Fold this protein.
Amino acid sequence: MASDDLHWFLTLAELERVGAAAERLHLTQPTLSRMLARLERRLGVLLFDRHGKRLTLNEFGRVYYEHARRAQAELDAAAGELADLANPAGGVVRLAFQHSLGARVVPELIAGFRRLSGRITFTLNQDAADVVTAAVLDGTADLGLVSPRPSAAGVGWRPLLRQRLALAVPPDHRLATRRQVRLAEVADAEFIAMHPGFGMRRVLDELCAAADFRPRIGFECSNLDTIAGLVAVGLGVSILPLEYPPMGGPQPDPALIPLADPEPMREVGLVWSTAATPSEAVRRFRDFTFDWARVRPGIE
């Protein structure tokens, strides 16, 4: 595949609509359709199934998409290395992280690093822990911040901090004034949880398993602020970091009660691909995070 085909093909594959892809690429729909037809003729196979105005990758398209995505990641990495060679003080770090780390941990890290390396820039992406790890492994992210430690092969890991966990309950809940609580005391409650694949969902499932019950999930979402809001209005209970910041809205915040269960913590760490050769900018930021973790309090 020619390098100039990569961007439009990946855009079309991800949006699955010629009109939306053409608009993003600043092309006309007929032009993009002709480009796709030309590519499919060259390959000798159709890459998409057509459903009216919508396209979906077929078996051939999925194989091609994975190779195209890796090729784009390699070209992006090459461009970054060239930029580092031409300008050693600059460079780009592609950092992926879980949503729950975006309010405090990521800003603190980047602010500290930029005071030392102001010309290095960042591309930031938030997603579930599994998606962050996959992005690091396939080369679309240089580094990731996740919790808990991923089990995937080929991932380097360095723990940075540990966060105390608490049971989040509505402010008028029967347990709201307790100094600590065991998770088994709410085994019959309805839980509000992150979607499967998110780090906090794995933490919740593991804590409930250790407490010998399976949580009854009433709501699933992808944002801890949403969980806090749903708990606050009485729709269920959940697990949140004990130092979770107040929402600052008109409604009261949920009550956070420290868990008395064994190891009520989540460990946050940095991940990278052990097979990738990091750029100078990525190496410098990775080294900075290690130093940052050594000098800051280990538990928050």
Remarks:
- The chain has a mean pLDDT of 89.
